[in-house]
Amino acid sequence: MTKIVRKAAYQVFSFDARAFTFGDSVFTFDDMTEFLAQSIRARGLYGFGPLVTSLGGQPEALLAACDISTNVLADPESTLPISDMAALLELAAKRLERPDFSLLLG
Predict the structure, then answer these.
(1) SS3 (DSSP) at 13
(2) Contact at 8 Å (CB) between 105 and 57?
(3) pTM of the model
(4) Hey, where are the domains in the chain?
């Protein structure tokens, strides 16, 4: 296991941790793991719940159908696989009969 010591805070970070914070300035894009390279912040789903509700849908049901925790809507800094977010947006567009759903979301 490769470890890096941050000189400023003397904290040990592991590449196996699979999560970095804003203070991790010693990491470069080359240090990203495959997991992080294929993930996206939940911030892209901001407004998902209210929009789905306003269009007559149930956000919890859509999230469950894509096996996504409802917690991602509460924490914009959480991450999820890009493929899961894409599946969620596609499912919402289909079930709500709104092919422009992603555009409405922003």
Answers:
(1) strand
(2) no
(3) 0.65
(4) 3-36, 38-105
